[in-house]
Amino acid sequence: MFRKSKEVSILLVEDDDIDVRVIERNFRKCGIASPIVRAKDGLEALEILRGNHSPDWPFIVLLDINMPRMNGLEFLGEIRRDPRLAGITVFVLSTSDAERDKFAAYSQHIAGYLVKSDGAEQFLDVINLIGQYIETVHFTDQPLAALTPLSAAGPR
Fold this sequence. Notes:
With 156 residues, the chain is α/β, with parallel strands linked by helices. Helix content is 39%, strand content 15%. The protein has a single domain, classed as Rossmann fold (3-Layer(aba) Sandwich). It has helices at residues 17-29, 42-50, 72-81, 99-106, 120-136, 150-153, and strands spanning 9-13, 36-39, 59-63, 89-94, 112-115. Strands 2-1-3-4-5 form a 5-stranded parallel beta sheet. Helix 1 (17-29) links the parallel strand 1 and strand 2. Helix 2 (42-50) runs parallel beside helix 3.
């Protein structure tokens, strides 16, 4: 069980309704109370992030790879090219264990590539890892795009 020291929202980009329910149930089972906003594909996730319905900062993205309209790798390319979204922390959470998918995702600077396993115990370990990340990492108070780069701010 994780202590609630900070509120970190989750943008879950997942097209499979059953996987969404399993992820939400396992978050509750692990004591992770992070609010979850769901997008069914990369296009919907971009609409959320670029619109008025973006999760409260700080947040992380849990991203599936295989989705209709815009898959996870295409979504990663879009956010990494957008200066307002480029610094978002993304974990890939996919059934794909293909080396080419892992390589493509890591080349887009993801925080981690986690494979959805068939075993409930192993999947619980994945959710626990995300909970530990949320509790351990120190997030900025605002998105990176809102911060003034040190080189532009002058001497301190």
